[in-house]
């Protein structure tokens, strides 16, 4: 054991342990800063392009790219919100019709129940009534878990926190874009030449991983959006575009994804008596779930250089340890470890 476990390895393991603890306790509250840094890295090629194309100084190029980013992002958000609000207004106009359909269907269920139990013993009828009441109360309680005073209050009280985080993100993004090259230079100035070469190797590897991850998510999201849009054009054409966008955005949530949107939708269709549309939506939810769970590990593994199995294990363990953020950090830590080993920073070649 002493041949391969030495002071250097102990130091490396200690650093890894510290990084893991930081990932668990610090990263979740530093999400706006992390996203700002990743966005700045993502926008850096555009900044360099503007500098080269127009012969501008870095500050002018950064301001230009930052403003263009804000305009494009704001326009996209505005379009999505207006479409969503329009569909909500249209849905609210149809609420009375849906309510009448529910009342009519419930009346038919009661009439069918009375006809079917006319010849049955009173005890059996009472048992059926008890079960039906319990079922209805269960549905009511399930709905109230999503739509209640506490949920609305939490959403409203979370708005100021979100706005603060968003402002911090914008400020941090601009500052990171301005100082990205200086930060990189400061980091390399503190390193020996041999160490700097290893870090450059790791940086290039991580850069490929980040862009590979974004590319993988984009490719999978394109598949999800295309399948959702095509299916909804046949199932519910009046809501196809908006709901496809909603599904596309929500699908980034690990494990649940599009199920959050489609499950209440097809359950509602079953309740109002539209069995055909409810079945179609349920099938769509299953198809999207299968696509996400089968295609994502393979695409991510291809783009970031991990095998599908290693990618799946890293995403799952990260998700279990630190929640949503771990879904992305898990594969990143694995890549960081393998890159450090390939660069010679970590040496753990041993046999049992």
Low-confidence stretches: none
**Bulk shape:** elongated
Strand-residue fraction?
under 5%
Largest sheet: none
End-to-end Cα distance, whole Å, is: 9 Å
Task: Look at the structure and give the mean pLDDT.
Answer: 76
Sequence of secondary-structure elements: HHHHHHHHHHHH
Rg on CA atoms, Å = 27 Å
Q: Please tell me the total number of domains.
A: 2
Helix content: over 70%
Structural class: mainly alpha
How many alpha or pi helices? 12
Question: How many strands in all?
Answer: 0
Keywords: Membrane, Transmembrane, Transmembrane helix
Protein name: Sporulation integral membrane protein YtvI
InterPro entries: AI-2E-like, YtvI-like
Main location: membrane
Structure description:
With 352 residues, the chain is an all-alpha fold. The chain starts with 6 loop residues before the first helix and ends in a 9-residue tail after the last helix. The radius of gyration is 27 Å and the shape is elongated. The chain has helices at 7-25, 31-54, 58-93, 95-116, 122-146, 149-189, 193-235, 240-250, 259-271, 275-304, 308-322, 326-343. Helix content is 84%, strand content 0%. It has two domains: 1-93 and 170-190, no CATH class; 198-352. Its main location: membrane. This is Sporulation integral membrane protein YtvI. It is found in: Membrane. Keywords: Membrane, Transmembrane, Transmembrane helix.
């Amino acid at each position: 054991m002493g041949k391969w476990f030495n002071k250097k390895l102990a130091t490396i393991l200690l650093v890894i342990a510290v990084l893991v603890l930081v990932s668990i306790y610090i990263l979740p509250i530093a999400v706006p800063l992390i996203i700002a840094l990743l966005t700045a890295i993502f926008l850096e090629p555009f900044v360099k392009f503007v500098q080269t194309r127009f012969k501008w100084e870095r500050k002018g190029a950064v301001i230009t790219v930052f403003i263009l980013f804000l305009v494009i992002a704001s326009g996209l958000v505005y379009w999505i919100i207006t479409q969503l609000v329009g569909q909500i207004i249209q849905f609210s106009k149809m609420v009375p019709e849906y309510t009448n359909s529910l009342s009519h269907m419930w009346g038919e269920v009661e009439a069918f129940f009375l006809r079917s139990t006319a010849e049955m013993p009173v005890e059996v009828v009472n048992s059926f009534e008890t079960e039906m009441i319990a079922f209805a109360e269960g549905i009511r309680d399930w709905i109230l878990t999503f739509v209640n005073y506490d949920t609305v209050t939490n959403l409203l009280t979370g708005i100021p926190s979100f706005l603060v985080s968003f402002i911090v993100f914008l400020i941090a993004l601009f500052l990171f874009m301005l100082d990205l090259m200086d930060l990189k230079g400061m980091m390399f100035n503190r390193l020996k030449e041999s160490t700097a070469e290893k870090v450059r190797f790791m940086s290039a590897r991580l850069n490929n991983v980040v862009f590979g991850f974004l590319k993988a998510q984009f490719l999978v999201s394109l598949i999800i959006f295309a399948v959702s849009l095509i299916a909804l054009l046949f199932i519910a054409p009046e809501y196809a575009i908006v709901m496809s966008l909603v599904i596309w955005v929500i699908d980034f949530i690990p494990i649940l994804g599009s199920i959050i949107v489609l499950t209440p939708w097809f359950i509602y269709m079953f309740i109002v008596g539209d069995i055909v549309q409810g079945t179609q939506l349920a099938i769509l939810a299953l198809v999207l779930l299968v696509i996400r769970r089968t295609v994502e590990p393979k695409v991510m593994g291809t783009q970031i250089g991990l095998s599908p199995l290693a990618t799946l294990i890293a995403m799952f363990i990260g998700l279990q340890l630190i929640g949503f953020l771990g879904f992305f950090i898990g594969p990143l830590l694995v890549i960081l470890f393998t890159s450090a080993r390939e660069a010679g920073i970590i040496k753990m070649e041993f046999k049992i």
